[in-house]
């Protein structure tokens, strides 16, 4: 089994890590609470034959999905469609002013257990030379900033899916994003 690997932006919010079909994490607040509300900026897409809507990018801005602990009010980002993943690190450029002003609205489910699947299909070690790391083992991102190589390997996911666990204990997918 590979060592626990998940994006740095989720540090402090992972209750459980498992390697199933993909690396999978159960989220929690910093105090360990697992029942979290889902808040988002973007649009909801209805897929024929599915009872729930999927959170997708908005017309003007990339999507943003956050979790909020209803007891403490603590909020943390689960996924930022304008900053997270391979394409946002190396390919896509977004207007920073639009990324700063994305008001969140609550997704229509009660506070629930949240599970995230992560895709790590990019073979970073095989392609490391192509990223041209410097002497400090950092690489240049599309926005001109530099990131440590180990963080690139963790944050450069190429897929993310978010599920909530419903009252019957079934995982229901509400986010499905290809990132490379």
Describe the structure concisely.
The chain is mainly β. Helices cover 12% and strands 36% of the residues.
Describe this structure in words.
By secondary structure, this protein is mainly beta. The chain has one domain. It has helices at 86-90, 96-100, 124-127, 149-155; strands at residues 14-19, 23-27, 37-41, 43-46, 53-56, 64-68, 75-80, 105-106, 114-119, 138-140, 146-148, 159-165, 171-178. A 5-stranded antiparallel sheet has the order 1-2-9-12-13, with no helix packed on it. A 4-stranded antiparallel sheet has the order 7-6-3-8, with no helix packed on it. It has a two-stranded antiparallel sheet with strand order 4-5. A hairpin with a 6-residue loop joins strand 6 (64-68) and strand 7. It is globular, with a radius of gyration of 17 Å. The two termini are 24 Å apart.
Topology:
Blueprint (H helix, E strand, L loop, with lengths): L13 E6 L3 E5 L9 E5 L1 E4 L6 E4 L7 E5 L6 E6 L5 H5 L5 H5 L4 E2 L7 E6 L4 H4 L10 E3 L5 E3 H7 L3 E7 L5 E8 L2
Antiparallel strand pairs: 1-2, 2-9, 3-6, 3-8, 4-5, 6-7, 9-12, 10-11, 12-13
The tally of helices reads 4
Fraction of residues in helix: 10-25%
Largest sheet geometry? 5 strands, antiparallel
Return Rg in Å. Answer: 17 Å
> What's the SSE pattern?
EEEEEEEHHEEHEEHEE
Write down the overall mean pLDDT. 95
Model regions low in confidence, pLDDT < 50 over at least 5 residues = none
Number of strands: 13
Q: Output the structural class.
A: mainly beta
The number of domains is 1
What percentage of the residues does DSSP assign to strands (E)? Answer: 35-45%
**CA(first)-CA(last) distance:** 24 Å
- The largest sheet has its strands arranged as 1-2-9-12-13
